[in-house]
Specification:
By secondary structure, the chain is an all-beta fold. The chain contains no helices and 17 strands. The strands form 4 sheets. The chain has a 5-stranded mixed sheet, with no helix packed on it. Strands 1-17-13-14 form a 4-stranded antiparallel sheet, with no helix packed on it.
C-alpha cells in the first residue's frame, strides 16, 4: 500500500482578486516535527520497514516538498534514495536523510546499497490550493487581508494599475499571523487609487 504522509503542493495559481486592496502573503509557520518516514530493518531483515509497513513499501512523495527519513537500520543495510538531486546525507544506516523533491522528479527507487533489495519512490504533482478572502481593510499606509487556505502555502501579494499590461508588482509584507485557520496579513499599501490586486500562491 502506498505511503504518503502528506500531499501538498507548489503549483502556482491565482487565488484572489479585488479592487482597492487585496493581497498578501501567508506563509504558515510550523515548529519542529517528526520525520516523515521512519526506516528500519528489524532483526537485520533483508527488507526495509517504513512507517510500520513491510517489506519495502511503495512511497508516494509530492513534487516540490521536502521530506525527512529517520533511518535506524542494521549497519549492513544502508538506506539509499535513487534520486540524484535534492538529497542530503544519503546512503546511511543510521541518521536522517533530507530530500527536497525537485518539481520535475520522476519515479525511482530506494534500496540497500549493500544487498540491493529495493522499493519504489513514486511522485505526484501537488494538488491545487484553494483560498477564500474573508476580510479586507485599508488605512493610510497599509492593506490588511484576512484569508483562509486549504493547505500550508507561500503567497505573494501583487498589484497592477493597468489590466491591459502584465506588469504585476509585488507588495511588501509587513506581518503575517495565523489563528484558528485564518491568516491576517498586513502589506504596504500600493500607490494610486485605481489599483487591482491579486494573491499568487507558489
Amino acid at each position: 500500500m502506498p505511503v504518503n504522509p502528506f500531499g501538498i503542493f507548489s503549483r502556482r495559481r491565482f487565488l484572489g482578486r479585488s479592487w482597492l486592496g487585496l493581497g498578501c502573503a501567508a506563509l504558515l509557520a510550523g515548529g519542529a516535527r517528526a520525520a516523515d518516514f521512519n526506516v528500519s530493518t528489524p532483526g537485520g531483515a533483508f527488507a526495509f520497514t517504513i512507517n510500520g509497513e513491510s517489506p519495502n513499501p511503495t512511497l508516494t512523495l509530492t513534487r516540490g516538498r521536502t521530506y525527512t527519513f529517520a533511518v535506524a537500520n542494521s549497519s549492513f543495510h544502508p538506506f539509499k534514495l535513487g534520486a540524484t538531486t535534492g538529497v542530503t546525507n544519503n546512503n546511511i544506516s543510521s541518521g536522517t536523510i533530507t530530500y527536497a523533491v525537485p518539481l520535475d522528479a520522476v519515479d525511482t527507487t530506494y534500496f540497500c546499497s549493500f544487498h540491493f533489495f529495493t522499493g519504489t519512490l513514486q511522485f505526484v504533482d501537488p494538488p491545487p490550493v484553494t483560498a477564500q478572502i474573508v476580510g479586507l481593510s485599508l488605512d493610510v499606509s497599509n492593506v490588511t487581508l484576512r484569508s483562509t487556505v486549504s493547505n500550508a502555502a507561500s503567497f505573494t501579494p501583487q498589484f497592477n494599475t493597468n489590466l491591459l499590461t502584465t506588469n504585476w508588482l509585488p507588495l511588501s509584507v509587513v506581518t503575517n499571523t495565523s489563528l484558528n485557520g485564518t491568516n491576517e496579513t498586513i502589506c504596504g499599501r500600493p500607490p494610486g487609487n485605481a489599483v487591482f490586486m491579486r494573491i499568487r500562491a507558489q
